[in-house]
Amino acid sequence: MTIYWMLLLAWGAGLMAFLGGTIAYLEGSANTVTKREFVHGITAFGGGILMAAVAFALVPEGMKELNAWQLALLFALGGVSFAIVDAWLAKHGGNVAQFMAMLLDFLPEAISLGALFAVSPNTAILLAVFIAAQNLPEGFNAYRELRFAQLSSKIALAGLFGVSLFGPVAALMGYWWLRDAPEITAMIMSFAAGGILYLVFQDIAPQARMRRHWTPSLGAVFGFIVGMLSKQLLG
């Protein structure tokens, strides 16, 4: 397989976030209880997928390549860094936790995609499918969040499309520079894992809960299942 297929895979996986945002833009039903349950369920689903990414994609790489102190320090640094960013955004009237978590998740995985493509293209295709499955609900949630932050539809969708363009760039970085530097890739992934875990518990999980409704939170279970099965297939 050529490097152009790798770039296409990375971009296609990123475009799923844009597709998710487009679906959120086109979805125009009345704000009924059923719709609120659905939206809360999608939020929980995205949170479950992010937790699966931490558990099965990001942290295992760090545990394999880093010693205990490096892993703990980078994980903590990721959490603290994004706590500071989150606090700054809240102080200035913004909240883009879903968007930040999606970016934190997508970039290191796209780097891994490039590094993996150099060694095992078939496995890289499975990883691209996993990333695409994550990005669709995350894009849906991120679009709604950006709109809630008073950004226009055009700017929100442009932001999600811009994220997709980072995919090929990150994949190229992994393919050219990091395929023989697994420790650096593991450091990036461990930092991202700490940031994602903070964002899930601080901002995303609380948005998934809906008082007197119990089904939306099951979305987190199904999201985690998607990540778990993807890990099994990649393994």
TrEMBL record:
GO cellular component terms, semicolon-separated: plasma membrane
One GO MF term: zinc ion transmembrane transporter activity
Transmembrane segments: 38-59, 71-90, 110-134, 155-178, 184-201, 213-230
Pfam families the record matches: Zip
Membrane topology label: Multi-pass membrane protein
Keyword annotations from UniProtKB, A to Z: Cell membrane, Membrane, Transmembrane, Transmembrane helix, Zinc
Location within or outside the cell: Cell membrane
Protein family per UniProt: Belongs to the ZIP transporter (TC 2.A.5) family.
Protein name: Divalent cation transporter
Organism: Idiomarina piscisalsi
